[in-house]
Design a protein that fits this description.
Blueprint: E1 5-8, E2 12-13, E3 16-17, H1 22-29, E4 34-37, E5 43-46, E6 50-54, E7 60-66, E8 71-73, E9 76-77, H2 84-91, E10 95-97, E11 101-104, E12 109-112, E13 122-126, H3 128-134, E14 139-140
Parallel strand pairs: 1-8
Antiparallel strand pairs: 1-2, 2-3, 4-5, 5-6, 6-7, 7-13, 8-9, 10-11, 10-14, 11-12, 12-13
Length: about 140
């Protein structure tokens, strides 16, 4: 599998669009390494560079990238550019914070472990519907 991913805000990643079925996703990227059903009824499938979430209707709602992925927003490599967080903060007009993550709601993704020390870093790209659901867990970011 190619390790180059570009975020398309509120639409998806590369040519993968939110809302596509699991079957269509598997046609594009193959069968996952493993999968499970979480306590919320969401199907989570694991691949080498990311995991994907499908709601009970089996439509793609989010993609969470691990720190071994080459994930880009515009020309910024989010894991490999040491100034990526600073650059994203300048681009976003809507930054929210949780204990471990910053959510850029206008850009459609969050960055976990970039602004505070944690065990690892991930980037989660949200569908608009999923974004609406998670925003209640965040508060305004005060640098």
């Amino acid at each position: 599998m190619e390790n180059f991913f570009k975020i398309v805000p509120c639409q998806g990643v590369n040519d993968i669009k939110f809302g596509i079925s699991r079957e269509k996703f598997h046609e594009i990227l193959g069968i996952p390494d493993s999968s499970r059903l979480n306590k919320y009824g969401t199907i989570v499938e694991f691949y080498e560079f990311f995991k994907v979430s499908f709601r009970s209707n089996s439509n793609l709602e989010g993609i969470e990238f691990f720190d071994n992925a080459n994930i880009f927003f515009k020309d910024i490599n989010l894991f490999n550019d040491s100034d990526s967080l600073t650059k994203i903060l300048k681009l976003s007009n809507s930054v929210l914070e949780s204990d471990e993550a910053l959510l850029f709601s206008d850009l459609g993704f969050s960055m976990w472990g970039f602004h505070k020390e944690t065990d690892g870093k991930t980037v989660y790209v949200f569908s608009p519907k999923a974004l609406d659901e998670v925003m209640k867990y965040y508060k305004p970011y005060l640098p």
